[in-house]
Amino acid sequence: xxxxxxxxxxxxxEHGHDHNDHDHSHSHEDAHAHGGAHVHEDTHAHDHxxxxxxxxxxxxxSRFHDPAHAAEFDQRGMSDMRSxxxxxxxxxxxxxxxxxxxxxxxxxxxxxxxxxxxxKNGRIVGVDEAMAMLDVGHQHKxxxxxxxxxxxxxxxLPFKSGTFDRAFVSFSLHHxxxxxxxxxxxxxxxxxxxxxxxxxxxxxxxxDSVDIALEAKINQVFRRTxxxxxxxxxxxxxxxxxxxxxxxxxxxxxxxxxxxxxxxDGLPTGRHWLEAALELEKEAPELAERMKKNYFTWHSxxxxxxxxxxxxxxxxxxxxxx
Length: 322
Ligand SMILES: C[S@@+](CC[C@H](N)C(=O)[O-])C[C@H]1O[C@@H](n2cnc3c(N)ncnc32)[C@H](O)[C@@H]1O
Hints:
This protein is an alpha/beta fold and 322 residues long. It has one domain (12-207, 229-259, 313-319): Vaccinia Virus protein VP39 (Rossmann fold, 3-Layer(aba) Sandwich). It is built from nine helices and ten strands. It has helices at 67-75, 80-92, 112-115, 131-138, 179-189, 209-226, 235-245, 270-283, 285-294, and strands at residues 12-18, 23-29, 100-104, 123-128, 147-151, 164-170, 190-202, 248-262, 296-301, 304-319. Strands 1, 2, 3, 4, 5, 6, 7, 8, 9 and 10 form a ten-stranded mixed β-sheet that branches. The longest helix is centred in the C-terminal third of the chain and has 18 residues, at 209-226. The protein starts with 11 loop residues before the first strand and ends with a strand. 39% of the residues are buried. Bound molecules: S-adenosylmethionine. Residues 64, 105-107, 110-111, 128-130, 133, 153-154, 170-172, 175-176 line the site of S-adenosylmethionine.
């Protein structure tokens, strides 16, 4: 395959590596030029298959099980950045339009909604363990065509082996307490030659003990809200998860989005990042300096903080060997 080398300097930074085909692309694109993946559906076939529910008791339940949080999550809608990432994810699925697609941890269907636009004869099956999220998606004012919901856990999928042509997981891998079990389970339910696309926020690869301590602190802050299973991955740890499970990994892209703004509004999980930064400033100045170097700077004034830096997301494709 011919070498591809795109280099445009705008807003977003993307680093793509096509490992098997030795195709190397490196492009810089404008996140804001790709907004508008939000679609309106008038006609719909909206089945609601709540196969089975899992009750683990309240101590295991994440905030996604809370109807008020589920509604608030959905109302946040799609920032330009999220729309751009969703467009990239849909491209990575390489669809003809007749595929059976698993939307793992579908939530309220924020990705399934624009994805449904690409589907002619196929179907999207959205699985989530949180009935509250499924319910918000089901009652949504913009129903999703070609979409069915199923309650289930990501590492115990209620489907037969070799069912799906495609699978994807968006903004959820870091919530899974058993990510290795999940990617193996997806491999099981994929057809041979089927594709699994993972989109997830990532942290920097730790290069020394300060990075390792910073990573521990970031995960600790997020676990207060999201529970003990929460863990940020790196691009290479996601690649390793997939290859260890038995996928071929033909493509890995890292998309970085710069920001320079008042407060963390519009930045996914931004509030917790700022919480971690402010705690580090008080408790561990060396880690705060590293946070500034690796992720973003912050300048507090009153209740507000000006933040400047960038967050990165991995878009990684795994293929089940034929
Ligand atoms: C941040 S939301 C993302 C939702 C959707 N994919 C999106 O991009 O908008 C994370 C979702 O993962 C779901 N989830 C977390 N752990 C899960 C598990 N083990 N099995 C199934 N769903 C899970 C949560 O209930 C929640 O709906």
